[in-house]
Amino acid sequence: MTLQEERLNALIEPVVKSAGFELVRVRVTGGKTKTLQVMAERADHTMSAEDCARLSRALSPVLDEADPIEGNYNLEVSSPGIDRPLVRLKDFEDWRGWPAKLELNRLVEGRKRFSGVVAGVDDGKVAFDIDEETETALFPLDWIASAKLVLTEDLIRESLKAGSTQPKDAASVGEGDEEMMETIHERD
Fold first, then answer.
1. Model pLDDT, residue 5
2. What is the average pLDDT value for the chain, to the nearest integer?
3. φ, ψ for residue 106 (rounded to 5)?
4. 122-164 pLDDT, tens digit each
5. Which of 24, 116, 135, 178 is the most exposed place for a label (fewest CB within 10 A)?
6. CATH 3.30.300.70 occupies which residues in the chain?
7. HSE on the CB side for 73, CA within 13 Å?
């Protein structure tokens, strides 16, 4: 996480919590016109289009007042999606037993990319059962450049089951699906 994203996280997280959601990730992307992506979810890992819109409305006045990004930018509020990124220790605990891919920010035993199964958290480190290895690897969270669940039929089924407790139009779908994302006007 960049210093700018850490500052944004500190600004945004209290608003997300007070709206009844958990903040998954804050990311700033783009060149001339930036996008501030706020990824959030309910405690049950669901996030409807209405939830995204509600959170966007809650964030707008705070962002307008703080003006945390220089120049124009777009605010994008989305769910993590089915094949969600794993960014917090909590994510690795919550998604224990699910296939994932992760990339490190350094070489470990001559490689950076690993496929396997999330094995939870052990002593503050991410536990990961690497494909074709017999021992569980432990990685400090700050060594992980990116991690993401692997889209499988079981994961889709689980997501649909969780979404069935929400109104029909609120079932979780993949990240980037237009129905699950609220983008509001350019900010300056």
1. 87
2. 87
3. -155, 165
4. 999 999 999 989 999 999 999 999 999 999 999 999 888 876 6
5. 135
6. 3-82+174-187
7. 21
Whether residue 30 contacts residue 159, with contact meaning beta carbons closer than 8 Å, is answered with no
The three-class DSSP label of residue 3 is helix
pLDDT at 183 over 70: no
Residue type, 74: N
- Asked if 100 contacts 118 with a C-beta cutoff of 8 angstroms, the reply is yes
Tens digit of each residue's pLDDT (9 = 90 or more) over 170-181: 333 344 443 344
For residue 165, what pLDDT is reported? Answer: 52
Domain 89-150: which CATH number of 2.60.40.10, 2.30.30.180, 2.40.50.100, 3.40.50.2300 = 2.30.30.180
For 146-174, b/e burial (b = at least 16 CB within 10 A) is ebbbeeeeebeebbeeebeebeeebbbbe
Distant-in-sequence, close-in-space partners of 17: CB < 8 Å, separation ≥ 6: 23
From the CA atom positions of the chain, what is the Rg in Å?
A: 17
The whole-angstrom separation of Cα 135 and Cα 130 is: 8
